[in-house]
């Protein structure tokens, strides 16, 4: 009796001391799924020159279009500081900003421009990074994309993809039955577009080599489709051996040594892999259905492709070593143009839902959970191409009777139109990281 | 009298087939596309009636006859099956090719804008191939026929509606030499 | 003391025997005397009562007659005479009766005196006889008593020893009992105190737990409003942030205690705390409780229900 009581007392005492020692743990499982607020203050121009570009504006646009940031409109800013001493964190906090970027442009002795920028954490009231850049006068745009990349990486942990480029195809109806096709190269935001090929016959399926130095594409310039490889630096190009019937859908292997493509030389469209060094051609698929749109997995060990062998176009994955075939898509009655993110986890594609009418949209499938999310509601979306950091998908869609390029963040949060381009625009392809 | 009855029967049967086709296309391509195709097919059907009188089995097909023949053949969405009303004209083309070994044709397959470009390229290819097969089983030889697919790159009609799509899902038969 | 006690029992027994004998004798005596004594007293009392009653009646009559005399003045004189004669007659009668009663009384007194003498004589003999018997009985009792006393003494001695032993044992037992009692009381007291203490602690703990529970929900709600989950967040990611608070509720510092493995994700968690800046309701918490649980606390940021 007495002993029992003593035990009880001891136990209570132990419990009490435990509860005293235990630290309070609060669990937060919900939050606001909204982009990070950042203010990119106009950079001070201390160069005495009229600058061709508004660097801060370009940085702001880049960050805003990524979907990760919500930049502050300039007209709402309480001041335009360009030096650390002038940054009043309280003001930015009142404006509900988490980060502030300031900068200034100056002349240097060698006739170049010095750009100094600094990123501040408003909440912790500290400088996160600052960096001086030296650029030629014509290099302001590159500098802006570079700064945006650095800030993006600092704050998101992902490498920025603002210094990348895109290629795309435009088509113009010159007169009845006369068209002009152009293959164009531009900054990721559509700026500084330049034509790298022009033809009266269709051009399509441009594909970047993994090092960003070459393009492969399909051109009908001989009135039959042929695959060409063009070196971007020199403009020099070569035609890959051409076969009767289809020659299409080229895709570079990650190591750059092989090209997956589609030929119908054996009767119907099949996937082949061409070794660019040995010129050896290997047939990959063998089915009377349509097999097309090959794309490499990031590890180069398998190919994903579109096939209607199941009755409707769906995306399959073929392991190149084991020849094991796996169907990836099951939702919707039309899934094509599959592309994988660099981490191999997400598959973007053109998708038409079951009973969803005639709408073709861009969808993303999480290959880990097979969850499918439809990212667009445009109805005629095609040619999705993923930014190398996996954050944004660029795609072609229709606006009126014109094709335009649009982009959507992989999580669907942010969607925006690429700047207007001449003619009917289609077939965008996002470059890998350049340089 | 008996011949007249037979003709009537053929007419009714073909009409029924047409109706069936319209219905099928409605379900596969959507209402607007179906009715547009129906109208299109109806026009094609009347030329078929006229042609069937002019070009009958075993007869020689002349160059002039070719001008009367249909050279564009239409398809249902995501399908590469030649519609029946095009069979007779394709047979006539095949006979012409068989009778003129130096003549050759190019079959250009097309698709409407819906779906992906490369898949549509393959679809156009498949449509051209199925027309090619019909020509070959009716006497044309392999070296007289070449196929090419333009996918959705060269639409016959600009537009983003069922009427345009119906016009664009096609195979165009072009004589490289007659 | 002890010696006196040893005589108690024999003395008591002797007294009891005497008492019994007396009781027997007295019963005989009462049975004989009672009827003779009570009868005359009973008659006498009756007569005295009647006489008194008659006098009161006569008086009453007299009053009535007085009244009647006033009403019938003429008749009264003659009647008075008649009545005087009647009264005389009644007086004579009464005296006669008195004399007779006196004679009877005297006779009775004589008889009584004789009877009393007889009784006394009988009683004397009786007493003599009784004294002899008593003496004899006394002698016998004396002998018995001595014997009994001897016996009693021995028994008493034995009893005394036994009693002493018993007493010793009893004392011992009592001592033990008292001791046990004391111990039990002490234990109970200790238990009571412990329980009171534990109860007080439990109540305090419950109270503080309720407060802590409230504060936990409050901090959680504030942080959920403040946390901007980054696009790169994935279900299953988890970062633990340690927060140091000031008693005012202000955030003193916040830092990653356990990383999610994704620096940007960790950063958003810390930012969520700094964005809040202050948890004003913490200032209302009891200072001791604040020191124990709130000065330093851990927040686990673990997104749930994300798309991926």
Helix and strand topology:
The complex is a heterotrimer of chains A (435), B (178) and C (308).
Chain A: H1 2-21, E1 24-28, E2 36-40, E3 44-45, H2 55-65, E4 69-71, H3 89-94, E5 99-107, E6 113-121, E7 126-135, H4 140-156, E8 165-175, E9 178-187, E10 194-199, E11 203-208, E12 214-219, E13 226-231, E14 237-239, E15 247-252, E16 258-263, E17 270-275, E18 281-283, E19 291-296, E20 302-307, E21 314-319, E22 325-327, E23 334-340, E24 346-352, E25 361-366, E26 371-374, E27 382-386, E28 392-399, E29 402-409, E30 415-417, E31 424-430
Parallel strand pairs in A: 2-4, 2-5, 3-5
Antiparallel strand pairs in A: 5-6, 6-7, 8-9, 8-31, 9-10, 11-12, 12-13, 13-14, 15-16, 16-17, 17-18, 19-20, 20-21, 21-22, 23-24, 24-25, 25-26, 27-28, 28-29, 29-30
Helix pairs in contact in A: 2-4
Chain B: H1 2-29, H2 31-54, H3 63-68, E1 72-74, H4 87-99, E2 104-110, H5 117-137, E3 145-151, H6 162-168, E4 170-177
Parallel strand pairs in B: 2-3
Antiparallel strand pairs in B: 1-4, 2-4
Chain C: H1 2-71, H2 73-226, E1 239-245, E2 251-258, H3 263-276, H4 287-294, E3 296-301
Antiparallel strand pairs in C: 1-2, 1-3
Helix pairs in contact in C: 1-2, 2-3
Family (chain A): Belongs to the TolB family.
Protein name (chain A): Tol-Pal system protein TolB
Main location (chain A): periplasm
């Amino acid at each position: 009796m007495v002993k029992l009581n003593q035990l009880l007392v001891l136990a209570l005492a132990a419990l009490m001391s435990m509860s005293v020692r235990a630290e309070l743990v609060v669990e937060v499982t919900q939050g606001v799924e909204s982009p990070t607020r950042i203010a990119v203050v106009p950079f001070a121009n201390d160069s005495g020159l009229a600058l061709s570009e508004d660097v801060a504006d370009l940085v702001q646009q880049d960050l805003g279009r990524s979907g990760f940031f919500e930049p502050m409109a300039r007209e709402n800013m309480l001041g335009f500081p360009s030096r650390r001493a002038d940054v009043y964190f309280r003001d930015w906090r009142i404006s509900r900003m988490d980060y502030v970027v300031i900068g200034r442009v100056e002349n240097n002795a060698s006739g170049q421009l010095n750009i100094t920028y600094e990123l501040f954490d408003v909440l912790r009231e500290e400088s996160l990074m600052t960096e001086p850049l030296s650029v030629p006068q014509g290099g302001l745009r590159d500098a802006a994309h570079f700064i945006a990349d650095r800030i993006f990486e600092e704050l998101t942990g992902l490498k920025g993809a603002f210094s990348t480029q895109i290629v795309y195809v435009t088509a113009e109806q010159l007169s009845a039955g006369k068209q002009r096709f152009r293959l164009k190269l531009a900054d990721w935001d559509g700026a500084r577009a330049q034509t790298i090929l022009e033809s009266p016959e269709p051009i399509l399926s441009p594909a970047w080599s993994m090092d960003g130095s070459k393009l492969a594409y399909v051109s009908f310039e001989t009135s039959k489709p042929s695959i060409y490889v063009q070196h971007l630096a020199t403009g020099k190009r070569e035609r890959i051996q051409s076969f009767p019937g289809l020659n299409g859908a080229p895709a570079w292997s990650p190591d750059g040594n092989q090209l997956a493509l589609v030929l119908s030389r054996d009767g119907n469209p099949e996937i082949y892999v061409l070794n660019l060094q040995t010129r050896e051609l290997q047939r990959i698929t063998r089915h009377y259905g349509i097999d097309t749109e090959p794309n490499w997995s990031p590890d180069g060990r398998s190919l994903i492709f579109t096939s209607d062998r199941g009755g409707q176009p769906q995306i399959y994955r073929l392991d190149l070593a084991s020849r094991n075939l796996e169907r990836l898509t099951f939702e919707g009655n039309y899934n094509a143009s599959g592309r994988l993110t660099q981490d191999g986890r997400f598959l973007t594609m053109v998708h038409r839902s079951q009973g969803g009418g005639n709408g073709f949209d861009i969808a993303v499938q999480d290959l880990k959970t097979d969850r499918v999310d439809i990212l667009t509601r445009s109805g005629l979306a095609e040619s999705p191409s993923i930014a190398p950091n996996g954050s944004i998908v660029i795609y072609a869609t229709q606006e009126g009777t014109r094709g335009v390029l649009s982009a959507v963040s992989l999580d669907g949060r942010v969607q925006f139109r690429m700047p207007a381009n001449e003619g009917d625009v289609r077939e965008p392809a996002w470059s890998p990281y350049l340089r | 009298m008996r011949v007249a009855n037979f003709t009537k029967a053929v007419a009714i049967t073909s009409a029924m087939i047409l109706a069936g086709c319209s219905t099928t296309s409605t379900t596969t391509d959507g209402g607007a596309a179906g009715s547009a195709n129906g109208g299109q097919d109806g026009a094609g059907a009347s030329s078929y009636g006229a042609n069937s009188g002019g070009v009958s089995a075993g007869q020689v097909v002349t160059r002039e006859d070719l001008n009367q023949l249909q050279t564009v053949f239409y398809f249902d969405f995501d399908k590469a099956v030649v519609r029946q009303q095009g069979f007779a004209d394709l047979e006539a083309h095949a006979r012409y090719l068989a009778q003129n070994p130096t003549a050759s044709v190019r079959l250009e397959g097309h698709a409407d804008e819906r779906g992906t470009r490369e898949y549509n390229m393959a679809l156009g290819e498949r449509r051209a191939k199925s027309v090619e097969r019909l020509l070959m089983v009716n006497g044309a030889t392999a070296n007289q026929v070449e196929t090419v697919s333009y996918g959705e790159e060269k639409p016959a009609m600009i537009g983003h509606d069922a009427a345009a799509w119906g016009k664009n899902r096609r195979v165009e038969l072009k004589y490289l030499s007659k | 003391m002890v010696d006196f006690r040893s005589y108690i029992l024999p003395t008591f027994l002797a007294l009891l025997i005497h008492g019994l004998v007396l009781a027997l004798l007295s019963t005989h005596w009462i049975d004989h005397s009672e009827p003779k004594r009570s009868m005359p007293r009973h008659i006498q009392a009756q007569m005295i009562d009647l006489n008194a009653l008659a006098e009161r009646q006569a008086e009453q009559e007299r009053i009535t007659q007085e009244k009647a005399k006033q009403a019938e003045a003429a008749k009264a004189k003659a009647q008075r005479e008649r009545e005087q004669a009647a009264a005389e007659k009644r007086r004579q009668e009464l005296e006669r009766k008195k004399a007779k009663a006196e004679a009877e009384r005297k006779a009775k007194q004589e008889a009584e005196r004789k009877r009393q003498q007889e009784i006394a004589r009988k009683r004397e003999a009786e007493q003599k006889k009784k004294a002899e018997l008593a003496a004899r009985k006394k002698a016998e009792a004396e002998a018995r008593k001595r014997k009994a006393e001897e016996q009693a003494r021995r028994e008493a001695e034995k009893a005394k020893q036994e009693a002493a032993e018993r007493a010793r044992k009893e004392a011992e037992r009592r001592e033990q009992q008292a001791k046990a009692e004391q111990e039990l009381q002490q234990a109970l007291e200790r238990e009571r105190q412990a329980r009171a203490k534990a109860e007080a602690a439990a109540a305090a703990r419950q109270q503080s737990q309720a407060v802590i529970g409230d504060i936990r929900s409050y901090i959680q709600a504030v942080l959920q409003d403040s946390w901007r989950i980054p696009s790169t967040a994935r279900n299953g990611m988890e970062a633990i942030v340690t927060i140091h608070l000031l008693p005012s509720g202000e955030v003193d510092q916040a830092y990653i205690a356990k990383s999610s493995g994704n620096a940007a994700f960790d950063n958003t968690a810390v930012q969520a705390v700094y964005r809040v800046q202050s948890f004003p309701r913490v200032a209302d918490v009891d200072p001791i409780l604040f020191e124990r649980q709130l000065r330093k606390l851990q927040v686990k940021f673990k997104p749930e229900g994300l798309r991926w």
